[in-house]
Design a protein that fits this description.
- Helices cover 61% and strands 8% of the residues.
- Strand 6 (152-159) and strand 7 (168-173) form a beta hairpin.
- The protein is an alpha/beta fold and 441 residues long.
Length: 441
Amino acid sequence: MWLLPILSILCSLVARIFYRFRVSGPSVPREGPLLLVANHPNALLDPALVTAAARRPVRFLAKSPLLSDWRFGWLMKAGGAIPVYRRIDDPASTDQNVETFRAVLDALADGAAIGIFPEGITHSEPSLARLKTGAARMALDFAVAHGHVFPIVPVGLVLRDKDVYRSEALAVIGDPIVWDDLAGRTAEEQTAVHELTQRIDTGLREVTVNLERWEDRPLVEWAEQIWATEKRAPRDPADQVARLEQATKVLAALRCRSAEEWKPFARRLRSYGRRLGRLGLRPSNLAVRTDLSASLSWTVRRLHWLGPPAVVLAGAALVIFRIPYELTGLIVRAFKPAEEVASTAKVLVGALLYGLWVVLLAILVGAFAHWMAGVAALILLPVVGVAGMRIRERWRGAWGDVRRFFLMRSRRELIEQLRREQSELAEQLVALYRTWRKISQ
């Protein structure tokens, strides 16, 4: 477990380099026994994201074949992973889970943080899979053995395009699950196991987005953005995820209750979203000021991104790292990994190629200049690469803002019409929400 002490730092670097990664919600306890339960959309990157969000070393339960896989096993063992023996992998090995439970309980007793994905599988379904009972049974066994409960914290991973480099990724940390009343109940009591598993499921659903079907995703996102813009809702990512989950429930209830009401509303919402999409706008853009003072303030805040140091740094990073970037894409595409493991493949292949490339360049610099210059190159090249990537992202964002600004200034009548329609849609959403609350109470 030599990697465990620095695991949170490495995971944070991986998460923030591959994704535009953010963490929202309360901080997890930094010391003492802790069980982190998370959804599992993204294979081996999910433990990295959970560890980055936790900001402390986390030991994960992992299916046993991973620990014997020559590609990943060494990394899993170095990070302190605890093997789980699943019936679907080898029915004859499930008896060894007695040792798994003992290892988990010993680790918790030592004050470790344990990570578990209670769905039991990584998948690309639009909603949580049915949870396994292992997390609940481990927690109940610990409480009986030690006479006290400990925090069980849900972590929701919300990924915009999980296999796309520099796409948005969010880890939402939920409130600890309340289970003091179950302390003293054993893992042999099925009612206690079922109840705690249900509470874990509820906690996870509060920090994830669970769609009926992937086709609903655009509708849910447009509904949330319209609501948030018109009602000036908080911009905190955790609040946004809560609104997305709520919008999912409201729209699903409308679909079940009345097809006559659902179809025209869905058609109007979808049409409005497509119109904004063709213009390259989002609902929040319609609330942005486009007067001269606002545009001057925006320009002043971003001028430094166009200065010579930024231009040189971004250009240098683009040239220096173009070869490993292209090679990573070519190799991953050649293997055609499944959607759930595509990002993991990109991270592992990219880490290897970029690492070798930096070492090679450092050796060349040392050979043609001085060995100290080679050491400096080894340290500075990764910094140049990350800084250049961030600068280019700022440029793309700024260019999009400029284009939207001139569009809104030049087509005022169309923008005003869209604002009126957006306001009407927001009022419809309010009415639907009120109806849903009455029915659900």
